[in-house]
Amino acid sequence: MNFRGGGAPANNAPSSTLALSVLEDSSKNGLAAIPCHPEPSGAGSKTRVKRFFGLRPQNDVECQTRQVALVVPCHPEALAEGSKARVKRFFGLCPQNDEQDLLCHLERSERSSDNSKGFFSRKLHQNDKKGKQAAFTMAEVLITLGLIGIVAAMTIPQLIKNYQIKVLQTEFKKAYADLNTASKMFQVRNGTTVSDYAANAGSMAALNLFKKEFNAVLKTNDNVDGTRDEEGNWIGAKPYKGKDGKWYGWGIIGNRNIDLGSGCDVTQFFFDGIGRPISFDDKPASGKNGPKVCIDINGEKSPNIYGVDFFVFLFTTDGYVIPWGQTHKDNQYDGGSTANNSIPNEDMSQYCNNKSKDDSRSAYYSCAIYALSNTHPTDSHKDYWHDFINGR
What we know:
alpha+beta; three-stranded mixed beta sheet
């Protein structure tokens, strides 16, 4: 049975049929022709819940008010429609009638599309903005790298040089300690000091016995003062043979291109377990200190320079090794000879002179004294390992 305008429903018509009739007539006659009316009495508790949450109008007056606002008449929900639609309407996802339902879906679809576009547009804009704030320009990166390169070029060479100096200083102290240890062990094993033994048996015999105090001897070299090659060319006391077949010794701080033999040139060289060449000089007088002992503290590695990695020491009658020239009660003094003698303190610096450019090896014989204390021979404001060996 259908309704027209404000007509009344027939008696005994079920509420569900009444609702469906209203829905059909509204679609035929337009929204304005659909009257407000009470909800069918059979709506039950679900309708009361909707009214409690404001999802349904409470009466016809409220319904008419909503009509004016929405320009859409209210009418009872068709009870025959499925549960999914009722759930959507309960949560306000779609309007309360079928005509609005179509408009609702279209409008929400359009809004969803616009909101989706707007959301992603805003997100991309925000990301783009954040990216611009966090990134560096190519110019900034290049300038930074350039500054890093300049600082590195200025500091790294000096850092490397300081490290090399520290290594040399450590190797010097180790060589000095090893010579003293071997000298004392020689005294314990043989019941005499190297000085006393050399005074009686000679420097070469003392060297052969002394090298037994080292854990290993890698090799020996018989070059001494006066040695010549097969063609008669002068070699002297030089321990290193180059790839070109020539023999090499050491330069000096004032002239690193010069090639000098060892200041201890009476005996052969023996190379200890870590490759350091060691040789002795003239035997001492009885009861006096000596002989001189020379050592390259880092072996064949560069720089091979007197006063930098090549030093001269002296055995003493009490079983120790001291830097050559250091004062001791048993040093012999013969008017300035560079043999096994003592040197007056006022003359000490002339035997450690970084300005000497000639082939006088004795200009560096006493450098071990200054290297041990890290003091400059002539300038109290400078040191040995950073200043003196660099020619300052």
